[in-house]
Amino acid sequence: MTEESNTLWHGRFASGPSEALLKYTVSLSYDQRLAKYDIMGSRAHVRGLARVDLLTEADAEAVLIALDEVEAELTSGDFVFVPSDEDIHTAVERRVTEIAGTAGARLHTGRSRNDQVATDLRLFVKDHMAMITGLVVDLEQVLYDRSVEAGGAYLPGYTHLQRAQPVLLSHHLLAHFWTFRRDVTRLMAARVAADVSPLGAGALAGSTLPLDPDGTAKDLGFASRFQNSLDVVSDRDYVADALYALTMIGIHLSRIGEEFVLWSSEEFGFVTVDDGYATGSSMMPQKKNPDIAELARGKGGRLIGNLTGLLATLKGLPLSYNRDLQEDKEGLFDAIDQIAAGLVAVTGMIATATFRTAAMAQAADESAAGATDLADFLVRAGMPFRDAHAVVANVVRESIDSGRTLAEVTTDAEHLGADAAALLAPGVGITLRSSPGASGPGPVAVQLEAATAALEELKANLY
Ligand code: ARG
Question: Does pTM surpass 0.85?
Fold first, then answer.
């Protein structure tokens, strides 16, 4: 048993906590990160207690002053933690009581760490969903800028990683733009899910004291208070929502990462990563490696782990608070840190990369990416598409077998000829893609207008 028996519950116990218990259960090392929110929550609680006369004005004032002091100590690093500080909530309350004496001992009136930790974590999630949204918008801006700058540059679009049809580089970059736009929707939804105040739910069943949860919810800037005390002390759905939103960003970053790995290879040669965003090899002097892109791809794994880990923890938990719920934090903190760093790194990598548009155009022009356009040519002349597909397939096969270019074989082919072959000339195919939302210049100009509006709306709605 440890010497230190100054736990929050020591009155009930004959002996102090074992070393093993403390080592296994103490969460201070990571939940210190909630300090700012714990102090916010305590301030609102104190003001709420004063409003319903559970604290005198003088006591409330003393506690608020002590909270200011604790906040200053935590910010400056002067705060001294002691072995009995099981978590940040215990530490703050202990120090407030040291400073404010009896008034401090009244701070926890009508409150439990169960509604307290839920309040802190909801405030944390609200703030951090907004912070991550800001970083996603920065990436959106770079994708947008580079799309505008890409002008008429085009490359082969791929399906099955085989060259398929030409696409504008701007269209390709805007594909990622819309992907991240959806991530903002998910981040905002997670923020809304977190926007309910648990303060006043107590340990699980509310209180016999005349608390004012509506007032404290308003004080903390929550949209509403809980409806059910049992639900709110055990609800971590908003953490799962936040982790899902973050994990989807991670998955989207990993897809861009994979593309940059491919595109920066000598085999593709579509992009050169800026020196500041690449690494070298300790052994092979010629190497320049796209490590940011690889880590963006690799970190998807741990993000999925953080999400599924929380879901597994929540599964099968009976109402209401269970200590298992303490496991809600580390995965969330990790996901936020990884996504924040990943967004900044990938944004910088894309902003500074050189797109090798000549290599892109050459790859598009030398491929049979215009084959579908030949079939469309026959369709315009009245041929059923299935028949047109077969005619062009034969032409493609003949070109492969004979070693003659597709344009040469097309010129000589029945139903096709020189007019059709002209569609295969360099840079023509991309100009033909004109249907709404397509990859050609007309629809991409329309799309860019929509992207301009989307970006303006995003920036106007940043918290
Ligand atoms: N550190 C705990 C957590 O993060 C705080 C709540 C503890 N409540 C309790 N009844 N032991 O969940």
Answer: yes
